[in-house]
Amino acid sequence: MVMVIKKGNSQEKVTKKLQELNSRKDGLKASKYSGKLPKIKDPIGYQRTIRDEWK
């Protein structure tokens, strides 16, 4: 997310925008997907094979 703060804004407006940004919790919860892939082979090798499918 990008928050635009212009040079002429007061300290109150900047603080309000930063609090608004910090209060949002729309991000991805990575712990939800932790350990979902089977550990048959090393993760780097798996990633390389998946990326090579696009070629």
Q: Report the structural category.
A: mainly alpha
Based on Cα principal axes, name the global outline: elongated
Q: What's the helix-strand series?
A: HH
**Biggest sheet features:** none
Calculate Rg over CA atoms.
20 Å
- Overall strand count: 0
Low-confidence sequence ranges: none
How many individual helices? 2
On the 0 to 100 scale, the average pLDDT is 80
Helicity level: 40-55%
What distance lies between the first and last C-alpha atoms, to the nearest angstrom?
31 Å
Q: Beta-strand level of the residues, as a percent range?
A: under 5%
What does this structure look like?
The two termini are 31 Å apart. This protein has 55 residues and is mainly alpha-helical. Helices cover 42% and strands 0% of the residues. The chain is built from two helices and no strands.
Layout of helices and strands:
Layout lengths: L10 H13 L19 H10 L3
In short:
The protein has 55 residues and is an all-alpha fold. It is 42% helix and 0% strand.
